[in-house]
Design a protein that fits this description.
It is a single chain. The chain contains seven helices and nine strands, in the order E-H-E-H-E-H-E-E-H-E-E-E-E-H-H-H. By secondary structure, the protein is an alpha/beta fold. The protein has two domains: 165 residues, Alpha-Beta Complex (Spore Coat Polysaccharide Biosynthesis Protein SpsA, Chain A), CATH 3.90.550.10; 79 residues, no CATH class. Strands 1, 2, 3, 4, 5, 6, 7, 8 and 9 form a nine-stranded mixed beta sheet that branches. Strand 1, helix 1 and strand 2 form a beta-alpha-beta unit. The model has no long low-confidence stretch (mean pLDDT 93).
């Protein structure tokens, strides 16, 4: 990988993958010229993902799946540079984000800054841009691995940086987290099983939560996270997530369900 010669800070981009051939190239193209290397940690793709990444110039390493945090932590460890730009395969940098990063990396980064937070904005399947008032999360995605790292956890994959040591990238990263409603269901069920594997204690309040939490989750996603601006599709997304929350609570309350 050959970054823009004007950049003074060498950066490694890390991505974890499994069967992402339909969308990984968009992610790779979005970091072209910004990073010195791309490290892809793949957990057994069978759809040509690895070939696409290698043809692009990425270094691909196979590692059996252990969990989100473990895979990303491993990727950090094999990267050549201390500054890491972590992206998911279903994410991509906007042109505005590329321009902001180019300016940032063309000068020394202040010693007090350990990482930079981005706004990760959701994009519906088939769309090129977020819907009006789309929901988002703020995450640290560019960071100095000598100061902070991903946790060794199957489900908690967030780099923590104290506010005093955290910078901010104003332009967003776009995130197309689902391919379809069916993929939304499949993805969440797999994640919930991982999540409940790390939660050992069963709460006596779980039956009460099963009764009321799905309704609250629907309200949260449809109105507070503004899926109401997504039309019929937004309604379907919100109600599907609410129903999936019932499933999560059920496998938490009935542990035998986790292995089925």
């Amino acid at each position: 990988m050959k970054p823009d010669p004007a950049l003074r800070i060498p950066v490694s981009c890390t991505i974890i993958t499994k069967n992402e051939a339909d969308r990984i190239l968009r992610c790779l193209e979005s970091v072209r010229g910004l990073v010195s290397e791309i490290v892809v940690v793949d957990s057994g793709s069978t759809d040509g993902t690895v070939t696409i990444c290698e043809d692009f110039g990425a270094t691909c390493i196979h590692r059996d799946w252990e969990g989100y945090g473990q895979q990303k932590r491993f990727a950090e460890g094999v990267a050549r540079h201390d500054w890491i730009l972590n992206l998911d395969a279903d994410e991509w940098l906007t042109e505005a984000t590329r321009a902001e990063l180019t300016k940032l990396l063309s000068a020394p980064i202040p010693e007090a800054i350990h990482g930079f937070e981005f706004r990760i904005t959701q994009v519906y399947p088939g769309d090129a841009r977020p819907r009006p008032l789309a929901d988002y999360h703020d995450y640290v995605r560019l960071y100095d691995r000598t100061r902070c790292r991903f946790p060794d956890s199957a489900v908690f994959d967030e780099v923590k940086v104290a506010p005093a040591h955290r910078g901010r990238i104003r332009a967003p990263i776009f995130h197309q987290s689902i391919r379809s409603i069916a993929h939304l269901v499949e993805k969440n069920i797999a994640y919930y099983k991982l999540q409940t594997g790390e939660i050992k204690k069963k709460s006596p309040l779980t039956p009460l939560r099963i009764a009321f939490e799905p309704m609250l989750v629907f309200f949260k996603y449809y109105f507070m996270k503004m899926h109401v601006t997504g039309g019929v599709y937004g309604f379907i997304v919100a109600i599907t997530i609410a129903m999936l929350r019932t499933y999560r609570l059920a496998i938490l309350y009935f542990p035998k369900e986790r292995t089925r």
